[in-house]
Design goal:
Layout lengths: L3 E6 L5 E7 L2 E8 L12 H23 L8 E7 L3 H18 L3 E5 H7 L12 E6 L4 E8 L2 E7 L5 H11 L6 H9 L22 H17 L3 H31 L4 E5 L6 H14 L2 E3 L3 H4 L4 H12 L21
Parallel strand pairs: 1-4, 4-5, 6-9, 9-10
Antiparallel strand pairs: 1-2, 2-3, 6-7, 7-8
Helix pairs in contact: 1-2, 3-10, 4-5, 4-6, 4-7, 5-7, 7-8
Bound molecules: 5'-O-[(R)-(carboxyoxy)(hydroxy)phosphoryl]adenosine and zinc ion.
């Protein structure tokens, strides 16, 4: 019998709905929220309101694009957390209502696990065990992926996430939110070796980006004192130099982990994996180390419901899901779902 999953993602500032049949993606509609741009970060209350506005049209469009009726669905999967609680409540309440009305199972999904399973939406797919560097606006993790639903975080950030390092730098430079894509595009014509930023000293596979953020702040302050147009005159070089430091920190730890765990299938996932410099450097490192490298398609790197459908699919076929009373959680470890 065929399995058709409708998935809902609403953890942050993207309202998304996907339809997947037997593991094959049929639609993936994503509505972004421009309202946050002017604030330099996501405003939780505004995000929740925008999800409320978007959710019905996004779900209707996803079903239409897939050519399915609600009554064709086998189950509904939704993002349980981690994320903004008000935003999660919109998606989870909608998912619960829909599952209840259709009398079909409701499957809660860990957002970070979903970023990892984005690798299974398209070919080529990694083999288990593989290592995944998951880098997003809220998380930076190196995950040892043993099976579809069996993962272990072997390293993570002690403070800011990699995406936050991009976004906060962008804010200091007077750029709009989200800063990652802006820095990515400005860095394309900049010199990555022009300015040197420090590498944090943290143990094993863990990360720390708050010190980098502070050093960028002090650097900009002191240079602007000498020349008030410093940022404007050097914007591309600053972006390229910061980006290069963030990427080198990420890849050095990932490389170290592949050696210790003797792993040759290696992936990157999450919003920051959309970064063109990270993607290039990761591929280069892969060639040097003989890795098979995996990078999800651009639209499956940033938040999307296709990845929530992917986890929903595996949980459904393995009958590995809880009951309808799951409560969304702002914080949720990847290991808590096992
Ligand atoms: O995974 P995601 O869409 O949402 C979370 O789960 O947080 O990640 C969003 C993060 C933001 O910090 C954004 O600036 C960053 O991903 N991002 C990028 C790029 N595209 C998105 N960072 C660097 N370069 C990019 N091209
Ligand atoms: Zn995410």
């Amino acid at each position: 019998m065929s399995v058709t999953i409708l998935a809902i993602e609403s953890s942050c500032d993207e309202t998304s709905c996907a339809v997947m049949r037997d593991g094959v993606l049929l639609s993936n509609v994503i509505a972004g929220q421009e309202v946050h741009q002017q604030y330099g970060g996501v405003i939780p209350e505004l995000a929740s309101r925008a999800h409320q506005l978007n959710i019905v049209p996004v779900v209707d469009l996803a079903l239409k694009q897939a050519g399915f009726e609600r009554t064709d669905l086998s189950a509904i999967s939704f993002t349980e957390g981690p994320g903004l609680i008000g935003a999660l409540l919109v998606g989870s309440s909608f998912a619960k209502g829909l599952a209840l009305a259709l009398n079909i199972p409701l499957i809660s999904v860990n957002h970070m696990q979903a970023h990892v399973l984005a690798h299974f939406i398209d070919e080529p797919k990694p083999s288990f065990p593989f290592l995944c560097l998951t880098v997003s606006g809220g998380h930076t993790q190196i995950v040892l992926v043993k099976d579809y639903l069996k993962m272990e975080v072997i390293g993570e950030t002690n403070d800011d996430a990699a995406g936050e390092a991009f976004d906060k730098t962008a804010k200091l430079l007077g750029l709009l939110y989200p800063g990652g894509p802006m820095i990515d595009s400005l860095a394309k014509t900049g010199n990555p070796n022009r300015f040197k930023f420090p590498e944090p000293k943290v143990g094993a596979y863990d990360f720390s980006f708050s010190g980098l953020k502070t050093s960028i702040l002090y650097f900009l302050r002191s240079e602007t004192k000498k020349n008030e147009n410093f940022v404007n005159e050097n914007l591309n070089d600053i972006c390229a130099s910061v980006q290069s430091r963030i990427v080198s920190i990420l890849l050095a730890k990932l490389e170290k982990a592949t050696i210790e765990f003797a792993i040759k299938d290696v992936g990157i996932a999450g919003g920051v994996s959309a970064n063109s410099f990270l993607r290039n450097q990761f591929e280069e490192l892969g060639k040097k180390n003989n890795w098979r490298v995996f990078i999800p398609k651009f639209e499956f790197c940033t938040d999307n419901a296709a990845m929530i459908a992917m986890v929903g699919h595996y949980k459904f076929i393995k009958s590995d899901f809880e009951n309808q009373s799951v409560i969304p959680k702002a914080r949720l470890s990847i290991n808590e779902t096992f």
